[in-house]
Amino acid sequence: MNLRSWVLAAGLTALATAGLADGHGGKVKVGMITTLSGGGAGLGIDVRDGFMLAAKMAGNENLEVVIEDDQRKPEIAVQLADKMIQSEKVDIMTGIIWSNLAMAVVPAATAQGKFYISPNAGPSALAGKGCHPLYFNVAWQNDNLHEAAGAYANDAGYKNSFILAPNYPAGQDALTGYKRMYGGALAGEVYTKLGQTDYAAEIAQIRASGADSVFFFLPGGMGISFLKQYAGSGVDLPVVGPAFSFDQGILQAVGDAALGVKNTSQWNKDLDTPANAAFVQAFQAEYGRLPSLYASQGYDAANLILSAMAEADVSDADAFRAALAAAKFDSVRGDFRFGPNQHPIQDYYVREVIKEGDVFTNKIISASLTDHADAYAAECSY
Amino acid sequence: MSMLLLIEQVLNGLQFGVMLFLMAAGLTLIFGVMGLINLAHGSLYMVGAFAAAAVAGATGSFVLALIASLIAAAAAGALVELVVIRRLYDRDHLDQVLATFALILIFSEGTRWLFGSFPLFLDIPAALSGPVTLPGGIQYPAYRLLIIAVGLLIAFGLFQLIARTRIGIQIRAGESDREMIAALGVDISRLYTIVFALGAALAGLAGALVGAIQSVQVGMGEPVLILAFVVIVIGGIGSIRGALVGALLVGLTDTLGGVLLPGLFATFMEPSAATAVGSSLASMSIYILMAGVLLFRPTGLYGTT
Amino acid sequence: MTREALINLFLFLLLPVTAGAAWLLEEPFIITLTTKVAILALAGVGLNIALGLGGLVSLGHAAFFGIGGYAMGILAAHAQSFDPLMEVTFLIEGTKSMPVIWLVAVIAGALAALAIGALSLRTSGVYFIMITLAFGQMLYYFAISWPAYGGEDGLSIYVRNGFPGLNTLDPIQFFSLAFGVLALVLWFAGRLAAAPFGLALSAARQNAERVETVGMSPYRLRLLAFVISGAITALAGALFADLNRFVSPTMLSWQMSGEIMIFVILGGVGRLYGPVAGAALFILLEHILGGLSDFWHVYLGILLLLVVLFARGGMIGSLAGRAVAHD
């Protein structure tokens, strides 16, 4: 036997044994890769806490969860995915916050026969041509919240919006999503540098543009900077944006600058459903803080998996997939079902930032889109 | 583009440049006097912002917050100098880069350990929160005008300090001949600690001033650090005047590049492609500026060989 | 055999032995990690030619690493979608063949290094560090904002590229491939250091005037070293992208430059096997410390600081004594 055929034979044996080791007899092993350290760790921590809360409340001993920190680096996420699949032999993967990390991990994971349940990122590539029978998104397609903002702009009678987002794929999707629903004219369309912290130049353009409203998508620290600077600039046009810049985790850092701003979301803590009330109360009791959008999505992801476990054994992939697609769980958002590309069909709301005592939070003021599906479903075929 | 808008954007570039100067001044002094590359300078900027946010949260006073940022950053700077940095003066640049890169890791994760993963709140005082109307009808945020004023004042003070005071003479002497001033009986290690703490305090102040209009979070220092390096390389390492000129050049290039380039490309391209190309080029513009300067003046505008 | 030669032999055998043991124990993830060590070590070997041999402190080597990665990503993405790369006067197609991708990566890395080096080497000292950093940042921002190849999202390749006669999706076979490349490049770098060119380059690092007086141009020596260094780092980038089946602008970020430099320093600057030791230690730490605490970067920072302050010459330097083998 020469070296090459030896290595080849060795490799085949390894693959064969790896194949046999699957199947846990009713047990389900979930691998969660999320961001727990470095910038943006707050989002991952919320998804994890929401997910683990649901697991704890269900008390299902057949659910095992392995959690790893991707440090928001795609290379690390890919390696963790390899680890989850090769050594941990998980059945289902979940947890990724950022679209670019999802694009790095999800296609490889589903290609290797693992389920992936996205609790946050919903890149258009995975909703349309790149959709996969094993990929489910339990949060939203990336464009959805921006579409809801565009629909709200019509309802509010805005005719001339100034829109801005960072110059990267999710930013381009955001402006596309807004324009898809918004019917008025554009006073300006600006792409800013990713990670930019000073928006004086853009605010000056807004002031000079003659716009009647501003739409922006600037996640994380970028949104905090923009809102504070906008509030200090004396420009007082109404602002609307997706929920990301107004979420529980960062609202306290924005402070008064965010008060009264309208933002769009598929969830809020005051949504009047029994499941939501139970979730909000349990989350506060467990962690001592108000739940965020991300926590609600983590919680729903866990409950979706638990509902499928009650119906089918994960080793029977077709049955388990059908059970996931049925989405027979009590979503904290109320009505929830999957479309043909296994992305949500759900309602979107307009929220307003308010102050409750010392804490900044949101309240729902109206519905924006009902039973809304994403725009890419038609491109998806399995 | 109207004249008013252009003037406003120039003011924005000026404000950005002045902020960069506060960072770059410390870096360039530390390099000029001690011959040290300090990648951890951005961490001191972050320390200042976090100290200001903590004190403002506890007392509600913005002035106290600014003072806290100066003290905390200077103290952190002096501590780091005594424990780590002074062992690096005789090393080559490679060791300095590595050791201060290690300090960034320690500072960043240490801060997250202490303050958690979410951004902190720091806001500007109510009295400065609105815009003021300048002659010619330009509306401009009062706070940003204040930043410009404070920055220029500090620049003036720094020039005076170096030109006229005893410590300034020692600093200048240290830049030109380190062995000689030690031989003349100046306590060189004390001088080094003072210079390092001074540089750190300026970075901390910049962090607090900027933190109030941006977000106070872990990792906020590194993007600014890279820009500050670009500034001192353009200006000539070790030169305070170079740092000021470089900072204003970078501030104006970055701000005006972002505003003007997409419009420029739109004159001969279709709008969405022009936005994409223009924004890409704008985000690279200061690095192109830096490469250009170094090609014609390999030691920067005011550098000496 | 000197003590350093013994250590080198140990390090050389460490990777295949670890991978082999992991294969016997059916721990494919350990094989993947070992492959990562081999590839990162390769990037370090590339940087070490500029850094150790030439004394050129480049804080922009992520540029070449990323160029290699994008060479793989772009070629494979076009092959994946059957969409030709260019139709100028003749047709250029994408490819899923590793040897072709490697060749393209090496050429692209060398050309980029030639351009960046020709400009940067006009400066020296801190200015050189900073101008290489600036070129790295330029490419980084370009990659983020250029939409054609995924921008910040990067490019995913669903199936690893092929190598004639091997199943590259099998961890142990891909490891063998990466390790083979590393062994070849180590041999090449060893020969280079001992060759007249390597000796002249070392001399130029220690005393440029003296080299000039014997009629050689330090600028050209350094430029050639920088080009070789960039080409090898680009090759490592192509392999790294294939390991992950993914490439994104983070491969171009200045933190990546810093990490490649850490491999070299942890192991020992100018030591042929320094990057192997450094990369192995780094990955080991990442997994041991990362498992202990979310805040493991603090410990990594402290360790790095201690190495720089007290263990000059890195791991190999501490174990083998002060003399640098290259001189």
UniProtKB/TrEMBL annotation, chain A:
One of its GO terms (biological process) is amino acid transport. Residues 27-357 form the Leucine-binding protein domain. Pfam families: Peripla_BP_6. Coiled coil: none annotated. Keywords: Amino-acid transport, Signal, Transport. It comes from the Bacteria. InterPro entries: BCAA_transport (IPR051010), Leu-bd (IPR028081). Transmembrane segments: none annotated. This is ABC transporter substrate-binding protein. The lineage of its organism: Bacteria, Pseudomonadati, Pseudomonadota, Alphaproteobacteria, Rhodobacterales.
TrEMBL record, chain B:
GO terms for cellular component: plasma membrane. One of its GO terms (biological process) is amino acid transport. Pfam families: BPD_transp_2. GO terms for molecular function: transmembrane transporter activity. The keyword Membrane applies. The chain crosses the membrane at residues 12-32, 39-56, 62-85, 97-122, 142-163, 191-213, 225-252, 273-296. This is Branched-chain amino acid ABC transporter permease. Belongs to the binding-protein-dependent transport system permease family. LivHM subfamily. It comes from Roseobacter insulae. It is found in: Cell membrane. It comes from the Bacteria. Keywords: Amino-acid transport, Cell membrane, Membrane, Transmembrane, Transmembrane helix, Transport. It is a multi-pass membrane protein. CDD domains: TM_PBP1_LivH_like. The keyword Transmembrane applies.
UniProtKB/TrEMBL annotation, chain C:
GO terms for cellular component: plasma membrane. The chain crosses the membrane at residues 29-50, 62-80, 100-119, 126-149, 174-201, 221-240, 260-285, 297-320. Keywords: Cell membrane, Membrane, Transmembrane, Transmembrane helix. It is found in: Cell membrane. GO terms for molecular function: branched-chain amino acid transmembrane transporter activity. It is a multi-pass membrane protein. Its main location: membrane. This is Branched-chain amino acid ABC transporter permease. It comes from Roseobacter insulae.
